[in-house]
Fold:
Amino acid sequence: MKSIHEKDNYADYCGAHIQEFVQQLREDANQALISWPARSAATLMLIASAITFYYQDSIGNENAVLSLLTYLPAILVVVLYPIVSFIFTSVQRYSPVVIDTLCISGMLGFCLVIWVIFEGVSSQELLDDNLRYLQGQVAFVLALGTAFSFHSSYLVTLLRNFGFTLLVSAALFSVSREFFLLNGVSILEGAFLGLIINWVFLDGMRARFYLKSTDADTRQHLYNQLSKLVYPHQLERIKLGDELENTMPLKEGKAIINVFDVQRSSDIRHERTAEFFMNLFQAFLQICMKGYEHNPLRSQAFRLKETGDGFISSVGYPFLPVDSRSLADSAVATALSMFDAFNKEVERFNYSRPIKGAMGLAYNSVQGTFQSGGIRSYDLFGEALIQASKYEELRKQPQLWKIFCNHAAERGFTDFNILIVQEVVYNSLSPAYRELFTEIDLTDKASIGDFQMMYDNDARYIYFHLLA
Structure:
C-alpha cells in the first residue's frame, strides 16, 4: 500500500508542478538526443544497414544499395540535432517532438528495408528465407520505437503510439499484404509491449522528478535554516567543501569589545517584553552588519552574543572595520548608533517608565574559537571581553553612580543612557569624539574613595558619556 501511495504522490506532484515537469522532460529528451542513447540508436541503424546491404548484395538483390539509405532520415536527425540546437537553443524546447520524429523515421526505415528485400529478391525461396528472417524483428522494432516518450501526459503518449502503430501497419501493408497478415500478432505484441515499457518509463521519470525536486526543496530549506546560524561567507566556503572550523579567524587578535545592558531590566513589566528585546537586538544586528563583505572579512561590528537583556559585539576582530578611521572612532560611532536604535525601540515600546541602557568599551586581546563538541558555534574569549563587561558594570558602583547622577543633573537629565570607555580607547579617539567624554580620576580618593578597577589594575582613569 505504501508503494502505491508513493506513486500517487509522484503523479500528483508532477501534476501540481506541470511546468517544471515538462521542462525536466525537455531537458532529458535533449540530453538523450545529444548523448549516447541517440548515438547508440544511430550506430545500431548503421550496422543494420551495412549487414542488410552485405547480405542482400551477396544473394544478388538488385536493390541492395538502397538498404544503405533506408535509415538515413533517422540518422540525419541524430547527426544534425546537436548542431542545430547549439546554434538555435530554442530548438531544445521541441526535443520531445524530435524524439518522436527519430522513433517514427526509424520504424519507417525498417519498413523500407522490407520493401528493398521484397522488391529485389529473385526467387520465392529467397523471399521465404527473408520473411522468416524479418518476422522476428517486427515486434522488437515496434516496441523499441514506441517505448520511449518524453510527454508529460500518458494520454498523449497513448495517442502517439496508436498513430505510430497505424502508420507502421499501413506501411507494412503497402509493402506486402502477405507479410502484414503474417505479422499481425507481432504488430500487436510490439505495440502493447511499447505501451507497457513506456508506462514504466514515464512512472520512473515522475519518481525521479519528484525525488529530485523534493530533495532540492529539502536542501534549500536546510540552506535557509543554516544561514540563520552562520554568516554568508561561511555558507559559501562550506559549499566549496571547507570545514566549518576554517571559516572564521581563530588566531589571537586585538579588538574593542562593546558590552550593552539594559539598566534595571528586571523591573520591566510588560506583555511584550520579549518582543521588545527581540526587535532591539535585531536593530543592533543590522548596525553590526553594515558594510559586510568577505574578501577580506569586514563589517561595522561583529555580533558576539545576546544575553537575555544584553548584547555583546566587537569591532576590529574577527571582522575588520568598514572605514579607515581609528578602531576607537569606529567603536564609539557604532555605540552611538546603537543608542539611537535603542531609543527608537524604547519609544516604539511605549513603556510607562523610562528605559535606559549602558555600554562598556574595552580594548585588549581576543581570540576566536569553535566549541569542542556538540553544536560548533563560534565564540570569542580574552581579556577584552572581561574588561568591557566590568566597565559596563561600573554604573553599579555607588560612588561612581553618584558622580554620573550629579553630572546628569547638571545637564538636566533625570534618567540617562551611559557609555563608559577604557582609558586606552579614549586616548585613541579623534578630538571630536574625545569632547563627548568626561574623565574620572580613579586615584582621587576624595571623590571615589579606595577604588580599584577589577581586571584592569593599571587603569588610572575612566571616561563616560551620558545620553538622553
The domain at 249-467 is CATH 3.30.70.1230 (Alpha-Beta Plaits). The first helix runs from residue 2 to 16. Residues 395 and 401 are 5 Å apart (CA to CA).
